[in-house]
Amino acid sequence: MARSYSSRLGGPAAIGAMLAMLTAGAEAQAVLTLKGGATCAECRIQLVPSAVLGEGEAGLRPDGHAIVAVDSRGGYFVFPTTQQGRLAYYAADGRFVRSVGSPGAGPQEFDIGSVRMAVSPGDTLFVIKGPFLHTVLPEARGLLDKTRLPSSNALPVWTAHGLLAQYKGPRGKFYHQLRSPSGEPRSFGDEPAMRSPYDWVRKMAPALDGGFWSGAVNRYELERWTADGRHVLTIRREASWFEPWVDEPPGVRVTAPPNPQLSGVRERADGRLWSLTAITDPDWQPVPRPAGEARERNYENPVSRKSMIELVDPGAAQVVATARSERGIGFVIGATDLVYDIGIGPDGDWEVQIFRLVLRSPNQ
Protein backbone atom coordinates (compact mmCIF):
# COMPACT_ATOMS: atom_id res chain seq x y z
CA MET A 1 0.00 0.00 0.00
CA ALA A 2 1.27 3.51 -0.87
CA ARG A 3 0.55 6.59 1.19
CA SER A 4 0.31 9.81 -0.83
CA TYR A 5 1.28 13.31 0.22
CA SER A 6 1.07 16.48 -1.84
CA SER A 7 2.84 19.78 -1.42
CA ARG A 8 2.55 23.09 -3.21
CA LEU A 9 4.60 25.49 -1.12
CA GLY A 10 5.36 23.27 1.81
CA GLY A 11 3.94 20.10 3.28
CA PRO A 12 2.72 18.26 6.37
CA ALA A 13 4.74 19.01 9.46
CA ALA A 14 4.80 15.31 10.20
CA ILE A 15 6.52 14.32 6.93
CA GLY A 16 9.89 13.88 8.64
CA ALA A 17 8.42 11.58 11.28
CA MET A 18 6.60 9.65 8.57
CA LEU A 19 9.84 9.03 6.65
CA ALA A 20 11.58 7.93 9.82
CA MET A 21 8.75 5.49 10.50
CA LEU A 22 9.02 4.00 7.03
CA THR A 23 12.77 3.62 7.23
CA ALA A 24 12.41 1.95 10.61
CA GLY A 25 10.40 -0.89 9.13
CA ALA A 26 6.80 0.00 8.25
CA GLU A 27 5.49 -1.80 5.17
CA ALA A 28 3.79 1.20 3.55
CA GLN A 29 5.46 3.17 0.79
CA ALA A 30 5.14 6.95 0.86
CA VAL A 31 4.48 8.94 -2.32
CA LEU A 32 5.37 12.61 -2.02
CA THR A 33 4.21 14.93 -4.82
CA LEU A 34 5.88 18.34 -5.10
CA LYS A 35 4.14 21.09 -7.06
CA GLY A 36 4.67 24.77 -7.69
CA GLY A 37 7.78 26.90 -7.40
CA ALA A 38 10.64 27.10 -4.94
CA THR A 39 9.89 28.14 -1.36
CA CYS A 40 12.98 30.37 -1.30
CA ALA A 41 12.51 32.52 -4.37
CA GLU A 42 15.39 34.78 -3.33
CA CYS A 43 17.87 31.90 -2.91
CA ARG A 44 20.46 31.47 -5.65
CA ILE A 45 22.16 28.27 -6.77
CA GLN A 46 25.67 29.04 -7.95
CA LEU A 47 28.31 27.04 -9.81
CA VAL A 48 31.64 27.87 -8.15
CA PRO A 49 34.69 26.90 -10.30
CA SER A 50 36.87 24.25 -8.68
CA ALA A 51 39.26 22.79 -11.30
CA VAL A 52 39.93 22.42 -15.03
CA LEU A 53 41.03 19.06 -16.43
CA GLY A 54 42.78 19.32 -19.78
CA GLU A 55 45.79 17.98 -21.65
CA GLY A 56 47.74 15.05 -20.29
CA GLU A 57 50.57 12.96 -21.66
CA ALA A 58 51.12 12.68 -25.42
CA GLY A 59 48.11 14.85 -26.20
CA LEU A 60 45.67 12.85 -24.09
CA ARG A 61 42.53 14.79 -23.16
CA PRO A 62 39.05 14.12 -21.82
CA ASP A 63 36.71 12.81 -24.49
CA GLY A 64 33.63 14.84 -25.39
CA HIS A 65 31.48 12.14 -23.70
CA ALA A 66 33.72 11.62 -20.66
CA ILE A 67 32.48 10.65 -17.19
CA VAL A 68 34.21 12.06 -14.11
CA ALA A 69 34.65 10.52 -10.64
CA VAL A 70 36.45 11.90 -7.57
CA ASP A 71 38.31 10.13 -4.76
CA SER A 72 38.81 11.03 -1.09
CA ARG A 73 41.97 12.99 -1.96
CA GLY A 74 40.04 15.19 -4.35
CA GLY A 75 41.70 13.59 -7.39
CA TYR A 76 39.67 13.02 -10.55
CA PHE A 77 39.25 9.93 -12.73
CA VAL A 78 38.25 10.74 -16.32
CA PHE A 79 37.12 8.12 -18.83
CA PRO A 80 36.89 7.83 -21.79
CA THR A 81 39.69 10.02 -23.12
CA THR A 82 40.85 10.93 -26.60
CA GLN A 83 43.23 7.96 -26.46
CA GLN A 84 41.18 4.80 -26.81
CA GLY A 85 41.24 2.56 -23.75
CA ARG A 86 43.18 5.04 -21.57
CA LEU A 87 41.74 6.26 -18.26
CA ALA A 88 43.19 9.54 -16.94
CA TYR A 89 43.81 10.62 -13.34
CA TYR A 90 44.18 14.29 -12.34
CA ALA A 91 45.14 15.89 -9.02
CA ALA A 92 42.63 18.01 -7.10
CA ASP A 93 44.05 21.19 -8.64
CA GLY A 94 43.60 19.86 -12.19
CA ARG A 95 47.19 18.75 -12.86
CA PHE A 96 47.45 15.59 -14.95
CA VAL A 97 49.04 12.75 -12.95
CA ARG A 98 48.90 9.56 -15.03
CA SER A 99 46.85 7.36 -17.32
CA VAL A 100 46.23 3.62 -17.28
CA GLY A 101 44.74 0.98 -19.54
CA SER A 102 44.61 0.05 -23.19
CA PRO A 103 41.90 -1.15 -25.57
CA GLY A 104 41.29 -4.86 -25.97
CA ALA A 105 39.79 -8.03 -24.54
CA GLY A 106 42.69 -8.94 -22.24
CA PRO A 107 42.58 -8.93 -18.42
CA GLN A 108 44.33 -5.54 -18.21
CA GLU A 109 42.43 -3.97 -21.11
CA PHE A 110 39.16 -2.05 -21.52
CA ASP A 111 36.60 -3.52 -23.90
CA ILE A 112 34.41 -1.57 -26.28
CA GLY A 113 31.21 -0.20 -24.74
CA SER A 114 29.69 2.69 -22.83
CA VAL A 115 31.30 3.69 -19.53
CA ARG A 116 29.83 3.70 -16.01
CA MET A 117 31.85 4.24 -12.82
CA ALA A 118 31.68 4.07 -9.02
CA VAL A 119 34.26 4.83 -6.30
CA SER A 120 34.69 2.99 -3.00
CA PRO A 121 35.61 4.74 0.28
CA GLY A 122 39.10 3.26 -0.11
CA ASP A 123 39.42 5.07 -3.48
CA THR A 124 39.22 1.93 -5.60
CA LEU A 125 37.53 2.79 -8.88
CA PHE A 126 35.05 0.37 -10.43
CA VAL A 127 34.53 0.80 -14.16
CA ILE A 128 31.79 -0.99 -16.04
CA LYS A 129 32.56 -0.97 -19.75
CA GLY A 130 30.48 -3.19 -21.97
CA PRO A 131 29.78 -6.46 -20.12
CA PHE A 132 32.84 -6.23 -17.86
CA LEU A 133 33.52 -4.85 -14.39
CA HIS A 134 37.07 -3.49 -14.14
CA THR A 135 38.75 -2.75 -10.81
CA VAL A 136 41.20 0.16 -10.94
CA LEU A 137 43.71 0.73 -8.13
CA PRO A 138 43.60 4.03 -6.17
CA GLU A 139 45.01 7.03 -8.06
CA ALA A 140 44.81 4.91 -11.25
CA ARG A 141 48.05 3.09 -10.39
CA GLY A 142 46.97 0.02 -12.33
CA LEU A 143 44.17 -2.35 -13.26
CA LEU A 144 43.53 -5.05 -10.66
CA ASP A 145 41.01 -7.42 -12.24
CA LYS A 146 38.23 -7.79 -14.79
CA THR A 147 34.97 -9.69 -14.28
CA ARG A 148 32.19 -10.48 -16.75
CA LEU A 149 28.73 -9.31 -15.65
CA PRO A 150 25.35 -10.84 -16.51
CA SER A 151 24.40 -7.64 -18.35
CA SER A 152 26.17 -5.13 -20.58
CA ASN A 153 23.91 -2.32 -19.30
CA ALA A 154 24.68 -2.41 -15.56
CA LEU A 155 24.61 0.97 -13.80
CA PRO A 156 26.69 1.00 -10.56
CA VAL A 157 26.63 2.92 -7.29
CA TRP A 158 28.69 2.44 -4.11
CA THR A 159 26.65 2.14 -0.91
CA ALA A 160 27.53 1.34 2.68
CA HIS A 161 26.94 -2.33 1.80
CA GLY A 162 29.30 -2.38 -1.18
CA LEU A 163 29.00 -2.08 -4.94
CA LEU A 164 25.40 -2.16 -6.16
CA ALA A 165 24.30 -2.26 -9.80
CA GLN A 166 20.98 -1.91 -11.58
CA TYR A 167 20.20 -4.17 -14.52
CA LYS A 168 17.61 -6.66 -15.72
CA GLY A 169 18.70 -9.72 -13.80
CA PRO A 170 17.70 -13.23 -12.83
CA ARG A 171 14.38 -14.04 -11.18
CA GLY A 172 12.87 -10.70 -12.17
CA LYS A 173 14.98 -8.60 -9.79
CA PHE A 174 16.22 -5.12 -10.67
CA TYR A 175 19.05 -4.30 -8.20
CA HIS A 176 22.06 -6.53 -7.58
CA GLN A 177 24.91 -6.46 -5.06
CA LEU A 178 28.16 -6.98 -7.00
CA ARG A 179 30.69 -6.53 -4.21
CA SER A 180 29.88 -6.68 -0.49
CA PRO A 181 31.84 -7.12 2.77
CA SER A 182 30.26 -10.55 3.23
CA GLY A 183 30.95 -11.58 -0.35
CA GLU A 184 27.41 -12.90 -0.70
CA PRO A 185 25.41 -11.88 -3.81
CA ARG A 186 22.02 -10.31 -3.23
CA SER A 187 19.23 -9.24 -5.62
CA PHE A 188 16.08 -7.32 -4.77
CA GLY A 189 13.46 -4.96 -6.18
CA ASP A 190 10.92 -6.18 -8.73
CA GLU A 191 11.51 -5.16 -12.31
CA PRO A 192 9.39 -2.12 -13.31
CA ALA A 193 6.65 -2.27 -15.92
CA MET A 194 8.29 -2.17 -19.35
CA ARG A 195 6.62 0.80 -21.04
CA SER A 196 9.83 1.98 -22.68
CA PRO A 197 13.53 1.02 -22.80
CA TYR A 198 14.14 4.23 -20.87
CA ASP A 199 12.33 2.78 -17.85
CA TRP A 200 15.39 0.57 -17.36
CA VAL A 201 17.88 3.45 -17.34
CA ARG A 202 18.31 4.67 -13.77
CA LYS A 203 20.38 7.37 -12.11
CA MET A 204 21.47 6.24 -8.66
CA ALA A 205 23.21 7.75 -5.64
CA PRO A 206 23.99 6.61 -2.08
CA ALA A 207 21.74 7.71 0.79
CA LEU A 208 23.05 8.85 4.14
CA ASP A 209 21.86 5.79 6.07
CA GLY A 210 23.35 3.18 3.73
CA GLY A 211 20.44 2.91 1.32
CA PHE A 212 20.27 4.58 -2.08
CA TRP A 213 18.25 6.83 -4.39
CA SER A 214 17.16 5.77 -7.87
CA GLY A 215 15.37 7.63 -10.66
CA ALA A 216 14.39 6.76 -14.23
CA VAL A 217 15.69 9.23 -16.83
CA ASN A 218 12.30 9.75 -18.52
CA ARG A 219 10.41 11.25 -15.56
CA TYR A 220 11.11 13.43 -12.52
CA GLU A 221 10.53 10.70 -9.97
CA LEU A 222 13.03 9.79 -7.23
CA GLU A 223 12.80 6.48 -5.39
CA ARG A 224 14.27 5.94 -1.92
CA TRP A 225 15.48 2.41 -1.08
CA THR A 226 16.73 1.19 2.29
CA ALA A 227 19.92 -0.77 2.87
CA ASP A 228 17.91 -3.98 3.28
CA GLY A 229 16.22 -3.53 -0.10
CA ARG A 230 12.86 -1.91 0.70
CA HIS A 231 11.37 0.83 -1.47
CA VAL A 232 10.03 3.26 1.13
CA LEU A 233 9.53 6.60 -0.65
CA THR A 234 8.81 8.02 -4.10
CA ILE A 235 9.18 11.76 -4.70
CA ARG A 236 7.24 12.98 -7.75
CA ARG A 237 8.01 16.46 -8.97
CA GLU A 238 5.49 18.21 -11.21
CA ALA A 239 7.33 20.76 -13.35
CA SER A 240 6.33 22.39 -16.64
CA TRP A 241 9.81 21.82 -18.06
CA PHE A 242 9.76 18.06 -17.40
CA GLU A 243 6.71 16.23 -18.64
CA PRO A 244 7.01 12.43 -18.21
CA TRP A 245 7.54 10.65 -21.51
CA VAL A 246 7.74 7.10 -22.85
CA ASP A 247 9.61 7.24 -26.17
CA GLU A 248 11.84 9.73 -27.91
CA PRO A 249 10.21 11.52 -30.89
CA PRO A 250 11.01 10.33 -34.43
CA GLY A 251 14.25 11.80 -35.72
CA VAL A 252 15.44 12.73 -32.21
CA ARG A 253 18.77 14.60 -32.26
CA VAL A 254 18.53 14.70 -36.06
CA THR A 255 15.42 16.67 -36.96
CA ALA A 256 13.73 16.84 -33.53
CA PRO A 257 15.09 17.94 -30.14
CA PRO A 258 15.57 15.35 -27.39
CA ASN A 259 13.24 15.08 -24.42
CA PRO A 260 14.30 16.29 -20.96
CA GLN A 261 16.21 13.66 -19.00
CA LEU A 262 16.99 13.23 -15.33
CA SER A 263 20.77 13.60 -15.07
CA GLY A 264 21.15 12.57 -11.44
CA VAL A 265 20.43 13.08 -7.76
CA ARG A 266 22.69 13.53 -4.71
CA GLU A 267 21.84 13.52 -1.00
CA ARG A 268 23.56 16.23 1.03
CA ALA A 269 24.74 15.89 4.62
CA ASP A 270 21.59 17.72 5.78
CA GLY A 271 19.31 15.20 4.04
CA ARG A 272 18.27 17.55 1.24
CA LEU A 273 18.69 16.50 -2.39
CA TRP A 274 20.39 18.10 -5.35
CA SER A 275 18.74 17.07 -8.62
CA LEU A 276 19.87 17.73 -12.19
CA THR A 277 17.78 17.58 -15.35
CA ALA A 278 19.07 17.97 -18.90
CA ILE A 279 16.79 20.21 -20.94
CA THR A 280 16.92 21.58 -24.48
CA ASP A 281 16.90 25.18 -25.64
CA PRO A 282 13.64 26.37 -27.24
CA ASP A 283 15.77 27.41 -30.24
CA TRP A 284 17.36 23.95 -30.56
CA GLN A 285 19.07 23.28 -33.88
CA PRO A 286 20.62 20.01 -35.10
CA VAL A 287 24.22 19.87 -36.24
CA PRO A 288 24.24 20.80 -39.96
CA ARG A 289 24.90 17.91 -42.30
CA PRO A 290 28.51 18.09 -43.51
CA ALA A 291 28.97 18.61 -47.25
CA GLY A 292 29.03 15.32 -49.11
CA GLU A 293 27.25 13.26 -46.43
CA ALA A 294 24.24 11.32 -47.63
CA ARG A 295 22.22 11.59 -44.40
CA GLU A 296 21.87 13.63 -41.26
CA ARG A 297 24.27 12.86 -38.42
CA ASN A 298 22.63 11.29 -35.35
CA TYR A 299 23.84 13.80 -32.81
CA GLU A 300 22.93 17.29 -31.71
CA ASN A 301 24.75 20.52 -31.15
CA PRO A 302 26.03 20.11 -27.55
CA VAL A 303 25.64 23.82 -26.78
CA SER A 304 21.86 23.36 -27.12
CA ARG A 305 21.74 21.22 -23.95
CA LYS A 306 21.14 23.13 -20.72
CA SER A 307 20.42 22.09 -17.14
CA MET A 308 17.81 22.62 -14.45
CA ILE A 309 19.17 22.41 -10.91
CA GLU A 310 16.93 21.97 -7.88
CA LEU A 311 17.40 21.58 -4.15
CA VAL A 312 14.64 19.34 -2.74
CA ASP A 313 13.88 18.94 0.95
CA PRO A 314 12.02 15.61 1.48
CA GLY A 315 11.61 16.20 5.21
CA ALA A 316 9.86 19.55 4.68
CA ALA A 317 8.08 18.31 1.51
CA GLN A 318 9.24 21.23 -0.59
CA VAL A 319 11.50 22.44 -3.37
CA VAL A 320 13.86 24.91 -1.71
CA ALA A 321 15.48 26.47 -4.78
CA THR A 322 15.49 26.15 -8.57
CA ALA A 323 17.98 27.44 -11.13
CA ARG A 324 18.62 27.07 -14.84
CA SER A 325 22.21 26.72 -16.05
CA GLU A 326 23.35 27.44 -19.57
CA ARG A 327 25.76 24.53 -19.19
CA GLY A 328 24.99 20.88 -19.84
CA ILE A 329 26.34 19.68 -16.49
CA GLY A 330 26.48 16.27 -14.84
CA PHE A 331 27.28 15.07 -11.34
CA VAL A 332 30.82 14.03 -10.46
CA ILE A 333 30.66 10.43 -9.23
CA GLY A 334 31.65 10.06 -5.59
CA ALA A 335 30.78 13.63 -4.61
CA THR A 336 27.65 15.26 -3.22
CA ASP A 337 28.00 18.79 -4.55
CA LEU A 338 30.45 18.60 -7.48
CA VAL A 339 29.32 18.83 -11.10
CA TYR A 340 31.23 18.98 -14.38
CA ASP A 341 30.85 20.43 -17.84
CA ILE A 342 32.69 19.29 -20.98
CA GLY A 343 33.48 21.89 -23.59
CA ILE A 344 36.08 23.40 -25.87
CA GLY A 345 38.85 25.21 -23.99
CA PRO A 346 40.87 28.30 -24.95
CA ASP A 347 43.30 26.11 -26.91
CA GLY A 348 40.50 24.82 -29.12
CA ASP A 349 40.38 21.31 -27.63
CA TRP A 350 38.30 19.36 -25.11
CA GLU A 351 38.49 20.14 -21.40
CA VAL A 352 36.45 19.34 -18.29
CA GLN A 353 35.45 22.13 -15.91
CA ILE A 354 34.62 21.14 -12.33
CA PHE A 355 32.18 23.26 -10.29
CA ARG A 356 30.82 23.14 -6.75
CA LEU A 357 27.08 23.61 -6.23
CA VAL A 358 26.45 26.31 -3.63
CA LEU A 359 23.13 27.62 -2.29
CA ARG A 360 23.23 31.33 -1.49
CA SER A 361 20.53 32.66 0.82
CA PRO A 362 19.33 36.30 0.64
CA ASN A 363 21.60 37.42 3.51
CA GLN A 364 24.76 35.96 1.94
Keywords:
364 residues, 1 helix, mainly beta, single chain, 4-stranded antiparallel β-sheet, 3% helix
Structural account:
This protein is 3% helix and 45% strand. The protein has 1 helix and 26 strands. The strands form 6 sheets. It has a 6-stranded mixed beta sheet with strand order 1-2-19-18-17-16, covered by helices on one side. Strands 3-26-25-24 form a 4-stranded antiparallel beta sheet, with no helix packed on it. A 4-stranded antiparallel beta sheet has the order 4-5-6-7, with no helix packed on it. β25 (338-344) and β26 form a beta hairpin. The relative contact order is 0.17.
List the helices and strands and how they pair.
Elements: E1 2-7, H1 15-24, E2 29-34, E3 44-53, E4 62-70, E5 76-81, E6 87-90, E7 96-100, E8 115-119, E9 125-129, E10 132-136, E11 143-148, E12 155-159, E13 162-166, E14 173-179, E15 186-190, E16 202-206, E17 212-216, E18 221-225, E19 231-237, E20 261-267, E21 273-280, E22 305-313, E23 318-325, E24 330-331, E25 338-344, E26 350-360
Parallel strand pairs: 1-2, 2-19
Antiparallel strand pairs: 3-26, 4-5, 5-6, 6-7, 8-9, 9-10, 10-11, 12-13, 13-14, 14-15, 16-17, 17-18, 18-19, 20-21, 21-22, 22-23, 24-25, 25-26
**Percent of residues in beta strands:** 35-45%
Radius of gyration (CA) equals 20 Å
Spatial strand sequence of the major β-sheet: 1-2-19-18-17-16
Helix content class: under 10%
Oligomeric assembly: single chain
- Say how many strands there are: 26
Poorly predicted segments: 7-16
H/E order of the elements?
EHEEEEEEEEEEEEEEEEEEEEEEEEE
The averaged pLDDT comes out at 86
Q: Count of helical segments?
A: 1
Terminal-residue CA separation: 44 Å
